[in-house]
Amino acid sequence: MTSTARPADGLRADDAPAPAPTSAGMKKVGGVAGWIDDRTGAAKGVGYLMKKVFPDHWSFMLGEIAMYSMIVCLLTGVFLTFWFDPSMVHTTYEGSYVPMQGVEMSRAYASTLNISFDVKGGLLIRQIHHWSALLFIVALSVHMLRVFFTGAFRKPREINWVIGCVLSLLALVEGFAGYSLPDDLLSGTGLRAAQGFMVAAPVIGSYLSYALFGGTFPGLDIIPRLYSIHILLLPALLIGLFTVHIVLVALQKHTQYPGPGKTNDNVVGFPVMPVYAAKAGGFFFIVFGGIALISSLIQINAVWVHGPYVPNATTAGAQPDWYMGFPDGALRLLPGFLEFETFGFTWAFPVIIGALLVIPAFYGGMIAYPFIEAWVTGDKREHHLLDRPRNAPTRTGLGMAALTLYGVLMFAASNDIMAIKFGMSINDITWTLRVLTFLGPVIAFWATRRLCLSLQRHEKDLVLHGRETGRIERSADGEFHEVHEPLDPYTRWTLVQHEGTPPLELEPAVDENGVENKKGARKNKLRAKLHDFYFGGAVEPATPAELEGAHHEHGHEQIEASEDDRVSAH
Hints:
mainly alpha, two-stranded antiparallel sheet, transmembrane helix, transmembrane, EC 7.1.1.8, Cytochrome bc1 complex cytochrome b subunit, Cytb/b6-like_sf
């Protein structure tokens, strides 16, 4: 069969096809983008961000949940500002909620009832706002736990860790200011407790309370001032810090979990456009839909049940939100004899320690930890591969000890409720929690560290000897042994990629003039003790020589077993 094509057509066989003409719509978009770039020079930065590669792992979504819930909280907050009246001026309620009709209350509380019962969709938006605020704090807290236990706070991310700690602290203050605004009996009780904490501060306490409340409690200024802080100051700080956090994440290489092909010099994942952006956009609507579903089905902060705040009344069983429970629990556990008088002055140390020092102590320890660990270990290198928590047993144990202490203090904030519901003595509960305050973190640290070391030993044995198959074979001399199956290279690499105990580098014992460095000697002694504490009992990863020896040993056993099988067969 003869081809009808012209011979000259073969000369253009390898030519690239002509590109499709650009549509009129895309030309307009390109024109707008070019106009913006000519005036801002943003194309280079946007192009860099669009090509940025992010690893794909479910735990990285925790930070996204925090960001998305904050966005939902901000949007619903804007809606609520249209109808909320942040005034403590008294009025008579005449809305549609019959049990409160004719009751004297503040305009703040009346407007909250109006949003809940008279504004279309108002109650749903209020509940979305409250649930998204709680989810924001939960997601932020769990995200920080992931960062801590995987070592993502190490160089060069110490600044981002500090920013995360400040964000968490601001979120607590923002949440407290938010649920204090309705001026119902429950939130008013919380404000009364906060004012009591302020006046317990030595010297400045009464001045601080007078300045914030605009006079004696409750005054007329606290709700308007909290409103300004809640909708202006704290959101601006949160958005600013979140922006800095995201910019730092984009400028630095994103951390990733260890795996084949993943090193400190690369990032394995998907670029922002189009993959990551599409996934992030879809995930935002999933988070928003989940919040809306919870808000539609589960009631929260039913302020109409509590009634308006009256200074001479309180609610039975009043409890702070979970994230503010640990200072209240510390206050309840501290013994009363710590309060005493000297020279006519009352020193309320239970309040000073429990309510004023616990929060700064918690967050101060969190902020300082990356720098303390770097000093103890002497590790000043950049880290982009995450640790498996079991491979950092001391850090993991310290984290669990802190969580245990937090949990004990949080449960202590409900000691009265537990006593009522379980029919137990509140004194027995209080003393049990006091003991657990000191004993619980120690037990948690010891148990967690031992568990991590046991997992390390198991994995090293798994690498060297392989996986148990359950098959029993007999050797030539009549001994029975179980056949082990070697791990595949990808699984084995994950189990051996972590580093062993680093050597301790100490300062010289003498200075450049040959004079004994006494200060340096004391510092060296302290570092040596902390280094032994941090790395004591560490299980070193399997070395290539150990792997080669183990493979040779098991290969010899398998040869002997196969020869024995052949003899038995004959």
